[in-house]
Sequence to fold (374 residues):
Amino acid sequence: MPAFFAIVAGKDEYLVNRDAQAFYTREVKSAGADGDAETLSGIISRVDEAMVIEQQFVEAVRTISMFGGKKIVWLRNLNWLMDSPQGRSDEVKASLSRLLKAAAESGDQVSIIISATPYDGRRKELVEYKSSANEFILHNPAAKKPWEKTTEHDRMLMEMAAKILTEKGVKFSRGVPEVIVSLVGQSTRVVLAEAEKLAIYAGAGGTIKENDVMLLVPAFGEGEFFEPIEALFVRDVEWTTAALDRYFFHQSSARPLLAGLLNRIRLLIQIRSIADAGGFKVTTEGLASGQFKAAAMRYGGALGAGEKSSTNLFSQNDWYISNKVAPGAAYFTLNELINLQLACGECFDGINSGQDEEVAIRALFLRALAVRQE
Fold:
C-alpha cells in the first residue's frame, strides 16, 4: 500500500486541481529535502497515448528516491474518464485498470495523487478504489431537477463569489452572487474571474447591483435570459426597456421569456396571497429567515407541499424564494399579478395570431409598469 493515496475527480477543473494541488503540496512539504516529487500529465488526445502514460506512471511509482526519501507522484488532468471516443475505448479502459492497480499496490515509500477531469459520472473505475484511497473526492454535482432553481454546487459558487466581493471591500445587493452564477453556469474558474472583474469595476467601497452584473457579465453556455423579468418585478422602467433591448438583440422568439414570466407570476401569486393572509411579511429585501419554513408548515397542505413541482411554492428552494422571488411581491398587489397573468395569455394568443412578438412583449411589460392597481 502507498504511504498516501488520493483520488480527486470531477467536471470542474478548478475544484479538482485545487484539491489535488493541496494534497501534493502537503506531501512534498512532509517529505522534506530528501523527498523526490514528480508530476505527470494524464492528458491524451489519441488512444495509443494512454499506454505511454501508463508506463511512465508505473515506472514513477516503482522508482524509489535516490536519496532514500519519500517519492511523491501526481498524475494530473487525467482525461480518460470523460465521455469521448478515447475514454470509451477498450484499450484506454484496460490501461486505466492497470494504472489504478499499480497505484493501489505501490510501496509505502510513495505518495500518489491522481486528479481526473473532465469526469463522466457514469464511470465506476475510480469508485472501485475508494476504499484503497486515503482521500477520495468527487466533484460531480447532481443534475438540476426541473423544480430546482439552485443546487448545492450553485450555492457553493455563490458563497465563493460573495467572499471575493467582500474581501475586496465591495458592497453588493443580496441577489448579486446568484445572478453571477446564473449567467456564468457551473464553471468555478469563470465565476471567480467574473467576481474579481466586478470587484475591480466597483473598487473598494463601491457597490454592485444586479443590473450591473447583467451589463458587465456575459452569459456563458445555455441559460435562461431572465433579466427583463428581474427588472419588471422591481418596477424599474429604464432597466426593463434596456433589458428587453438586450433580449431581442440575442433572441428572435419571445416565447421563452413569456414562459419564464408566467412561472414567476405563479409563484408570486402564491406569495402575495399568503402575505395578504398574514403568513408572510414581504419587503423589497424578500422574506426574513425562517418565514418560508414556518409558512410551509401552516399552508403547505393546501398547496400540496409534498409534491415536487415548478408551480408549487413550497417545493422550491428556500433561499431562491426568500431572496430572489419574494421581493417582487412587495412591488405588486395580488390584483396586479392576476391581471398580469391574464395579460400573458392574451399576449400569447396575439403572438399565435401573427402579431409581432417583440411589440407584443414590450406592450405587456410596459402596461404592467404603467398602471398601478390596488
Summary: The domain at 145-223 is CATH 1.10.8.60 (Helicase, Ruva Protein; domain 3). The beta strands are 4-10, 36-41, 71-78, 110-116, 135-139, 171-172, 207-208.
